[in-house]
Every structure is written in C-alpha cells, then in structure tokens.
Amino acid sequence: SAYSLIVSFPFPVILALMLNYCVSKRFGKVVQTVTYMPYFISVMVLVGMMNIFFSTNYGVVNMVLKALGMEAYTFMSSEASFRHMYVWSGIWQGMGYSSVIYFAALAGIDPTLYEAAELDGASKLQRIIYIDIPMLIPTAVILLILNCGNIMNLGFEKVYLMQNPLNTTVSEIISTYVYKIGMISNQYSLSAAVNLFNTIVNFILLVLVNGVSKKLGDTSLW
Description:
Elements: H1 2-8, H2 10-20, H3 25-36, H4 43-53, H5 60-67, H6 79-107, H7 111-119, H8 124-148, H9 156-162, H10 168-171, H11 174-184, H12 188-217
Helix pairs in contact: 1-6, 2-6, 3-6, 6-8, 8-12, 11-12
C-alpha cells in the first residue's frame, strides 16, 4: 500500500500539468481520453490482459526479451515482480482518472496570474513551480489524506486474481486472508474480527494524517 501510494501519487499531477500546457487542445483531449479509458476496464479483464502480455510462452514482453537474446521471465508467478506488477498496472489504469481532479483545479486558477507571470518574463517551468503547484497543493493534500485513510484496503479482486501458489508468500493480504478464513474455512468470527481491526486501523490513520496536515498546512477534511 505504501509503495502504491508513494509511486502513484505524482503521475496524475504530472499528466494534468502536461495537458494544461499542451499547445494543441485537440491533441490534449485525445491524450486525456486515451489515458482516461483504462479506468473503465474491469479488474478481471485487466488481469487477463496482464496474463496474456506477460505470458512466458506467447506474451509480447517475453517475445521481445527473447528477441534481444534474454531468457523469458515468469512475471506473473515471480515473488520479486508481484508488487511491481500490481502497482504499475494500477498506475496505468487509474492515472488518467485521477488527473481529472487536478486538471479541474488547474482550470480554476485565475488567468490574471498567468498574464502577470508572462509580463514578468516567467517561463513555463517557472509558472508551474510558482503558480500551478502551490494551487494544486490543497487538492493534493486532501487526496493524500483520503488515500492514507484507505491504506489498509489494498483491494481484494485484483490481488486474488493475480494470486497463485508460486507468489502466495508476497500476495497474501488482509482481504484475501479474511476471505479464505471466512468463506473457505468457515471461521466467521475470526474473519469479522480481522476486518473490524482493519477498519479501526484505517480510521486511526485517517485521523492522524488529517491532524498532521491541519497542523502543518491548515488543510484538512474537518
């Protein structure tokens, strides 16, 4: 969860800034649509695509590796690559959708700020650093607080579909554990207790991160 939170956080911001400064508005809309579309792909289809693209025998990625004289790699069954596969596929799927919020925040910036910066000779990079980023910080902080409050809920469906006997040592998470002990082993009381504990930890993290944010930058949920 921490890996996913840290790595995926800057990509929607970067995409929104790039689209905001895109010279061709038509090209920007095409890029925005293309990056937004993967969000509507179901988890089942996404994992199926990953199994096809990274297949040892006929996957595109391993075919390229073989063409370069390298050996095929079992991406979907490797313990070392499971976290990377999960996180980066999530970035690809959700980056466009998350960037919409930042793009809306950029659209609300007063145009006179850009005009004054241009008159003072500010470059695009300077406008990004001194105008865009400070205006995006409140929105980014709110989203960060919400994500931290959900850090214990990694997601059941995707992990369970990617899970196999070869990567169980790193792919077993709280959600899949609760499912197995509750629905398969019929230990309903234990699964309910684990899930309740998970919810309590999420709530405590949400309150702590919100308090720290309010104390440091006066930006919080309440």
